[in-house]
């Protein structure tokens, strides 16, 4: 029982949770607490703490720690939403028509500037930062265009012709552990920087609120300016991490899409146009439960190679899904029948 409890606790407080969520949350509330103490007066705040007995201090400390863990956990459930906001997917019509329009104009100007650089480094910057113009519309933020460039890469008709958004969750399950760890590290780094950026903006807004409430200008103004500066720096760091993450996603499609086809039961076609047609047909079949007439014959054609799926790309190891099912079923069996 204690071993299971310890495993759950260590699973909750893994390195990514601590660095990516718990520490930023702690820093945010520590900053807000410092503003509150400054507003009330540090002497008065310390006096109130000293007037508490030991049991009350311990209870307050435990409640504070539990609250931080709870807020960090809730914040973790909103990482995808935070990322979408930083990408520029704004549902508010007014924001999209004003700030969004300015952002898209600036990003188009940046793309034009990069396109003028005909050096190899100039092409690399454009390759990492923007999707081909014929594939996707411009997003208003640098982060959004960097991630969209990676998303559009495998769907390019001059490359593999498959939808990255649809196929990535399936490909992720069968890539080798070493590749998955690198992808996870890059994504965790990006998420951590975005969480820090978002909390820094909120802290700046809180500092302005304290200023309106009467906190001296010499206190709240540097806090607000520091929060905005930290938000900008961590956002730029997130963009750099997004470029690394995006290139790893591209590499996974380049190297392991054949393994994904094999797991689905189809051989990799010998010719690139045939492979593109097969990906289009499978995407329609799985997503729309049927294909267009031009792909029906391709889907129903006999498979010329063995359709048995290979083991995980880490040779000699059973598939991750099989490991998970075996562990889950074994745990249920060892637990015995449910008690009434």
How is the topology of this model organized?
Elements: H1 2-12, H2 15-40, H3 42-50, H4 54-77, H5 79-87, H6 93-97, H7 99-115, H8 120-129, H9 142-152, H10 164-172, H11 177-213, H12 217-264, H13 272-288, H14 293-300, H15 320-335
Helix pairs in contact: 2-4, 2-11, 5-11, 9-12, 10-12, 11-12, 13-14
If you had to describe this structure to a student in words, what would you say it looks like?
This protein has 340 residues and is mainly alpha-helical. The chain has one domain. It is 76% helix and 0% strand. The protein has 15 helices and no strands. The protein has helices at 2-12, 15-40, 42-50, 54-77, 79-87, 93-97, 99-115, 120-129, 142-152, 164-172, 177-213, 217-264, 272-288, 293-300, 320-335. α13 packs across α14 (293-300). The protein is elongated, with a radius of gyration of 26 Å. It starts with a helix and ends in a 5-residue tail after the last helix. Mean pLDDT is 83; it is low at 1-10, 311-322 and 324-340.
End-to-end gap: 19 Å
Biggest sheet details = none
Mean pLDDT: 83
Order of helices and strands: HHHHHHHHHHHHHHH
Features:
single chain; 340 residues; mainly alpha; 15 helices; disordered C terminus
């Amino acid at each position: 029982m204690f071993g299971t409890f310890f495993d759950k606790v260590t699973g909750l407080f893994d390195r990514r949770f601590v660095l990516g969520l718990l520490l930023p949350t702690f820093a945010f509330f520590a900053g807000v607490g410092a503003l509150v103490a400054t507003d009330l007066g540090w002497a008065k705040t310390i006096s109130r703490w000293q007037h508490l007995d030991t049991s009350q201090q311990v209870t307050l400390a435990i409640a504070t720690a539990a609250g931080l863990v709870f807020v960090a956990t809730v914040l973790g459930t909103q990482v995808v939403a935070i990322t979408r906001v930083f990408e520029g997917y704004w549902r508010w019509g007014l924001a999209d028509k004003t700030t969004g329009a300015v952002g898209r104009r600036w990003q188009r100007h940046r793309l034009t500037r990069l396109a003028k650089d005909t050096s190899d480094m100039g092409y690399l910057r454009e390759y990492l930062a923007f999707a081909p113009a014929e594939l996707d519309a411009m997003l208003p933020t640098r982060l959004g265009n960097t991630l969209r460039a990676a998303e559009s890469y495998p769907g390019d008709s001059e490359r593999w012709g498959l939808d990255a958004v649809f196929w990535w969750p399936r490909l992720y399950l069968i890539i080798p552990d070493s590749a998955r760890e690198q992808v996870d590290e890059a994504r965790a780094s990006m998420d951590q920087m975005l969480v820090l950026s978002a909390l820094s903006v909120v802290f700046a807004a809180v500092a302005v609120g304290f200023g309106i409430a009467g906190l001296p200008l010499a206190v709240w103004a540097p806090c607000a300016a520091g929060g905005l500066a930290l938000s900008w720096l961590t956002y730029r760091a997130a963009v750099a991490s997004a470029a690394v993450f995006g290139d790893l996603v591209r590499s996974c499609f380049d190297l392991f899409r054949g393994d994904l086809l094999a797991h689905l039961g189809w051989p990799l076609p010998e010719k690139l146009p045939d492979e593109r047609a097969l990906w289009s047909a499978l995407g329609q079949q799985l997503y729309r439960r049927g294909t267009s007439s031009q792909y029906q014959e391709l889907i129903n054609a006999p498979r010329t190679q063995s359709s048995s799926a290979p083991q995980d790309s880490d040779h000699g190891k059973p598939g991750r899904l099989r490991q998970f099912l075996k562990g889950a079923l074994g745990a249920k069996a060892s637990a015995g029948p449910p008690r009434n």
